[in-house]
Structures are given as structure tokens and as C-alpha cells.
Amino acid sequence: MDLILPSFGLIFWMTLTFVIVFVLLRKMAWKPILKALSDRENYIKDALNSAEKAKEEMAQLQAGNEKILLEARNERDKLLKEARETKDTIIAEAKSKAQKEAEKIVQSARETLQNEKNAALNELKSQVAALSVEIAEKIIKSELASDEKQKALVNSLLKEVTLN
């Protein structure tokens, strides 16, 4: 039971110690604690006011950002439209230029082919003439190789000359 019911001496000394600590705290610590609590309360009020101001500024900035974003989108759409028009113009010009170049190249190729064809025909004619002369020369040499054949040819030519 001694543990449950404290003795009178213990209660006396605990009460005396409590009163001394309470007096000391009241004289030395009470004002700084109250001042700290008051400062903390003022700091919290200021922080709440600053947060409210920041919230209002954020709302204003957000409205401004939305306006700027809308303007930027309109500008982007305008630039994209101009870029598409420029692209279409450049493509049309390039197609036209390429068509003209192609026509020039085809015409040049036709002229070149015609010139090469004419040159080939001329070369073929000259080769045929040279071959004909060469063949005729060989035939005449073989026909006139013997004296009898030469005499027969001269006689036949003389007969033709006198007949005319």
C-alpha cells in the first residue's frame, strides 16, 4: 500500500519543489514563452496573408498565361499556314522547272540520237562503199588473172563500143 499512497514528506517536498519551479518559470520564462507564442501567431498570420496574396497573383498570372498561350497558338497557326502556302508554291515552281528541264533533256537526247544515227549511216555507207570497191577489185583481179580472160574482156568491150 505504500506504493499507492505516498507519505506526507514526499507530498510536502514535491509541492515545495513545484511551487519553486513555478515561481522561477513565472519570473524568468513566462514572458519569453508568451512572446514566442505571440511572435509565432503573428508569423502564421503573415504567412497566411502572403499565401493569399500569392494565390491571387497566381490566378492573375494564370489568366495572363492563358491569354499569352492563346496568342501563341494563333501565331503558330498563322505561321504554319504561311509555311504550307510557301511549300506549295515552291513545289509548284520546282515541278514546273523540272518539267521544262525534262523537256530540254528529251529534246537534246533526240537531237543527239538523230546526229548519232546520221553519223552511223554515213559510216555504214562509207564502209559499204569501201567493201564494194574491195570486193570489185578482188573480182576483177580473179577475172583478169589469165591472159585469155583479159583478151575476152577486151574483145567484148570492143564489140559494145562499136555497136553503140
Could you give a short account of the major beta sheet? none
**Number of distinct beta strands:** 0
Taking pLDDT < 50 over at least 5 consecutive residues as the criterion, the unreliable ranges are: none
Query: What is the helix tally?
Result: 2
Strand content: under 5%
Estimate the helix proportion, in percent.
over 70%
Apparent shape = rod-shaped
Distance between the termini: 182 Å
Mean pLDDT across residues = 88
Class from helix and strand fractions: mainly alpha
Element string (H = helix, E = strand): HH
Radius of gyration: 63 Å
Number of domains: 1
Record the SSE blueprint.
Blueprint lengths: L7 H136 L3 H17 L1
Describe it for me?
With 164 residues, the protein is mainly alpha-helical. It has one domain. 93% of the residues lie in helices and 0% in strands. The protein has helices at residues 8-143, 147-163. The longest helix is centred in the middle third of the chain and has 136 residues, at 8-143. The protein starts with 7 loop residues before the first helix and ends with a helix.
